[in-house]
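Handout, page 2. Input:
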Amino acid sequence: MTTPESTHDHVEYWYAQNKPALLGRLRRIEGQVRGVHRMVDEDTYCIDVLTQIAATTKALQAVAVGLLEGHLAHCVVDAAREDADPTAKVKEATDAVARLMRV
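Output:
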């Protein structure tokens, strides 16, 4: 799914200043996913695999909440400051929350 912003050649978003930390968190999550893969490959007890999946899911959710918070604090606020209609940005945020809440 693409948004109008995602079709731009290069746009620097608010999280650019925190990109190294964000990428570090994502690398750790990537390692957790590889760990789950290894656990399944090694026939680890199912409850232990599920526990690791839950930890990985929580880590991804924490990243998502941080990005959502930044969207509200920067994109929505900037739209309001620029006398633009911030409702489109708020709609993007609520749609993102709805996607995050689906199971």
